[in-house]
Amino acid sequence: MIIVMEKSSLDPQIEHIANQITELGLKAHVIRGTERTVIAAVGDERKIKVESFESFPGVAEVLPILAPYKMASREVRTDQTQIQVLNFKAGNGAVGVMGGPCSVESEEQIVSCARAVKASGATALRGGAYKPRTSPYAFQGMKEDGLKLLALARQETGLAVVTEVMSPEDVELVAKYADILQIGARNMQNYRLLEAAGRSGRAVLLKRGPSATIEEWLLAAEYILNEGNPDVMLCERGIRTFEAHTRFTLPLATVPYLHRKTHLPVIVDPSHGTGHSYLVTDMAAASVAVGADGLIVEMHPNPEKALSDGYQSLDFSQFDGMMKRCKVIADAMGKQFG
Amino acid sequence: MIIVMEKSSLDPQIEHIANQITELGLKAHVIRGTERTVIAAVGDERKIKVESFESFPGVAEVLPILAPYKMASREVRTDQTQIQVLNFKAGNGAVGVMGGPCSVESEEQIVSCARAVKASGATALRGGAYKPRTSPYAFQGMKEDGLKLLALARQETGLAVVTEVMSPEDVELVAKYADILQIGARNMQNYRLLEAAGRSGRAVLLKRGPSATIEEWLLAAEYILNEGNPDVMLCERGIRTFEAHTRFTLPLATVPYLHRKTHLPVIVDPSHGTGHSYLVTDMAAASVAVGADGLIVEMHPNPEKALSDGYQSLDFSQFDGMMKRCKVIADAMGKQFG
Amino acid sequence: MIIVMEKSSLDPQIEHIANQITELGLKAHVIRGTERTVIAAVGDERKIKVESFESFPGVAEVLPILAPYKMASREVRTDQTQIQVLNFKAGNGAVGVMGGPCSVESEEQIVSCARAVKASGATALRGGAYKPRTSPYAFQGMKEDGLKLLALARQETGLAVVTEVMSPEDVELVAKYADILQIGARNMQNYRLLEAAGRSGRAVLLKRGPSATIEEWLLAAEYILNEGNPDVMLCERGIRTFEAHTRFTLPLATVPYLHRKTHLPVIVDPSHGTGHSYLVTDMAAASVAVGADGLIVEMHPNPEKALSDGYQSLDFSQFDGMMKRCKVIADAMGKQFG
Amino acid sequence: MIIVMEKSSLDPQIEHIANQITELGLKAHVIRGTERTVIAAVGDERKIKVESFESFPGVAEVLPILAPYKMASREVRTDQTQIQVLNFKAGNGAVGVMGGPCSVESEEQIVSCARAVKASGATALRGGAYKPRTSPYAFQGMKEDGLKLLALARQETGLAVVTEVMSPEDVELVAKYADILQIGARNMQNYRLLEAAGRSGRAVLLKRGPSATIEEWLLAAEYILNEGNPDVMLCERGIRTFEAHTRFTLPLATVPYLHRKTHLPVIVDPSHGTGHSYLVTDMAAASVAVGADGLIVEMHPNPEKALSDGYQSLDFSQFDGMMKRCKVIADAMGKQFG
Q1: Can you give the residue range of the structural domain that contains D46?
Q2: Sequence-separated (6 or more) residues with CB below 8 Å from residue D75
Q3: Rounded to 5 degrees, what angle do the CA atoms C235, C73, C331 make?
Q4: What's this model's pTM, rounded to 2 decimal places?
Q5: Which helix (DSSP H) or strand (DSSP E) does residue D298 occupy?
Q6: Sequence-ordered strand ranges (E) for D18-85
Q7: Do B252 and C257 touch (CB under 8 A)?
Q8: Structural domains of chain B, count
Q9: Which of D140, D171, D189 is most worth mutating to test chain C (most C CB atoms within 10 A of its CB)?
Q10: pLDDT over 80 (residue C46)
Q11: Do the Cβ atoms of A117 and A89 come closer than 8 Å?
């Protein structure tokens, strides 16, 4: 932590802060410049409340030095984590693809999706049974019946199943049927849910909240890791910006940036990240090219009739085209794809 | 709903959409212009999935007409709701103030805060017992012990107690001690929690998520109203923007805008909305001037030593100054303040 | 400047940087912590390119310490600048109001506006003669004819005239007629124009670009101050965010924040800052309450018929109501208003 | 244009608007729904001021239907424009690459850059002679001397030269030396400059302003096209968002979105779009994969010593690696690259 003092700050103010730093178990270095005095606090600042120094008299600014997350950081683990669930692999040279409908709607729908997903070479099936819906008047999902259909589709195809869990009390039930638990963007900072997912024994796909900083996102991952669950995948699904021609803005630079900061695999969701089916394939290709460790893509037998998110879902043939286009790029990069 | 067709759209595409609209129970008006054809769907579009028309061939854009929320809207109730809890009143001419620490830390701390809040003329006490913390390594709150101390402070002062609830399974317990349940910004779209708060029998203070649109926020309120609980206050606490000199950007135009769209009272939180104690009083004054129905403000006997949010907390004397400055403005506007 | 090294950085990398800092005329302090090494560079870092250290091997992050602007800063001048032009005063206890139409349209229009502005107690007249328009097909202003009409309106009323200048080659002409030159939001970083305005001998109203940081904005002011012109007013007119119910988001916390950082007066534009006439009066009141040194507000004899910006213009009676409501607040704050 | 009326709107208000529409030469269709009345105005709404209807009594919202730009739109030209300057080609199957330093610093620097750019297979040389700098205290460029060095480098290598022009009065001089005029992000809405570039006889690279909407950007292009210059390239260089780990957020979905809306080629700038050299190559690859028609990339013989933007510049070997990685992707897409 670096504390920058106001130009007008007084010696007793500087001493007061230096003493406080020492009391907290860190070392204080006071550096008096021609323009400003700065105080460097040396030691593990994660143990203290860095921002609280802002309220000390004479302080202009407080600059943290250490990232506040630990277990997710590259400092703890320098190679990249690969997560494998059945045939699905993400990270460390593997690009895993999860395809499927927004919501599970019927046996016929989910099984036909699963077959198409598998036929196109992907290894995981997505499908929502519990649906967080912006409006209380919208379709809220098939709940446990949906979970059962997902399990059935896995039995038919061998695909790994990924599905969202919305509440800590549902974690046990969802974990019974699913291979990977998805924490949705709206719940990225639902800490009880993160803790429950951390204790579930299942891999977790943690979506970024649309206004979450990278640091907040990695701290959310830290809640899961901290419960002893190392199998966390980060999913970039777009942030909220002034740009209105896409539903969210998908900032792909997140992928190589995260690869420097964390050993966890990074998945991209071009469906929610754009909100328009006609942008999904191009952004999926860009995601692979930028180095993503996986994709999660919405598809549906008949997007016009989908009970949710039809406007951003690919049909089977578009999904297949997307897979082919991405595979060429992954191959050129020497990565395993599917 | 208005559907704008591509310039190159074909007659059978237009017919297909018109038929689909009719099938869904609305009336379709096809308007052929010199430049574009548009299709107006007349009827209650809330019953259908407006966006799904985006995936129909030939469609350029879909423009919803009706707000998707109902019970929160001005169309349902033209006068403004006033919420009263003990001596706290917000809305319809009353500006209610909630003051207190970020976290309950001890009996001495919370009772001294409550006394200072009351002495300055405010009518509600805030204080966190369950704390949603970005980092798993930060202080997570005193939990039920904190709730008990809040109840004790109420007994001493008669202030209404507002405190956050983070999980549906805690609603019953928190509702036992608190007068007003706060749903935090991170949980604005935690729908299970909204539903549980809707059934709690307590007034609810619903904070805006930092990237939530007004529409998403009112739909979150709708989840609570829809459970039969009419006592919902909306709390603007800042949105996430590129502006980095404040922790969030506090968009005060939200207040008069909401007053046009909803009958629910609008509270402003200048503490989280700025993130710096030296900006809080000015923004509190501006909030009253813009027409807010209430304020929620962090204060602490000794901000330097606060276990959380000290950098944005006022001390007792600053809180008192803030109250005085706001009262003058409220008086000039003919409003009850405190 | 503080340079934070990667955990894996090597001693020769640290030495290389320390040498480079010394070569540039600053002093390097190397602080070796348990977790990280940081290098503090002491001296006037404004003379060097701080960010360039980011490209040195082993560097994790570079944190500037000094604000890059000088003449605009509080460090140079601790009291607040008051700018006076005719009867218009802004800053240091005075809240000056500029009212008038978006565009000058005719003698009758501008003179009637000027009379209404004066009658309501304001001291400056705004009106555009050169109009920066998003579309090449929109009305581009009356140009020199408009300037003449503004001068005529000043003659009739004694109001100070503020009008926009769009290009360095127009500065001389506009300065002949106007008392205050407005640099619009789109031109905040048009450096040639800033320099020309700095040499014009006229006070300058510098609008914030909708995505400009506070630092970029103050550096733009610095271009003007640097030419020897001390009469610069900063005008907050809203930033671009995801919030779509207002045309821009008006972040009023900017006002007290700027008051800490700069001695220059801060004006607020609630017309462009909201984009809807029904929000203007409330936000004008909030601006005065938050401590603004002035307002610039669009008004028009008949907003329905305005050639530009009618949707955000007040009519004469609304303007008068706005003035009355703001005056009460300014009076309560002990400030001169008008 | 669709005008949505308030639920409480009155018949005379509806008639008043319908009459106004008719007066303006469009046809008004009044559609009375069960919930709302909407008025559709049929005809070329570009001729009228759509937003002005917002200030009419009884109006809830005004929804424009037609894009306000014409010559840039797909409706005018359905195939894609290809721009060719010397050996540089962008659009319609060609991906053109512009490489070079941020600023021209010396003959040796620019000629060595040009040779490296050519050796790596790119066809255009970038280099700034007039530099728009945020701070008045920063290096402002070599001006005409820089232009002469660029021309010399072209002579040596045959590369097309692209360089920024900042002011209308410089257009003639810059056009004398350069093949492509760059309009920088800060000047995207400097309309005088756009008009002058439109009359210059040179191809124009129009960078997106960091808070410009797509519509504003295409309208800026329209200013150039409207002067009779068809050779406009759009350059996405990142938008301003809350995301702070990159200098700007590079929204690659812009590329396929623009391809639907306009026939103009779309170039991506991964250097400014990320602000960190370690992110440039990955984002360049993603840009090609998403369908960009060109790249503009900063490189420097020795980024540590660059007079500007060293932190986001590649060295020669990194540039060469970037070219190789992108070529594989372009080849896979069947596009010409270089």
Answers
A1: 2-63
A2: B7
A3: 50
A4: 0.95
A5: strand D294-298
A6: 27-32, 37-42, 59-63, 83-85
A7: no
A8: 2
A9: D189
A10: no
A11: no
